[in-house]
Amino acid sequence: MQQIRDYFEQKVKMSDKDWLLFSSKLIRQEFPKNNVLLKTGNPENYLSFVEEGIIRFFIPKEENDLTFAFVFSNSFVSGYDSFLTQKQSTYTIQTLTKTVLWRITYEDLQLIYEQTEIGNTIGRKAGEELFLKKSKREISLLNETAEERYLNLFTEQPHLIKNIPLKYIASYIGITPQALSRIRKRIY
Question: Which residues contact 8 (CB under 8 A, 6 or more apart)?
Answer without folding.
Answer: 14, 122, 125
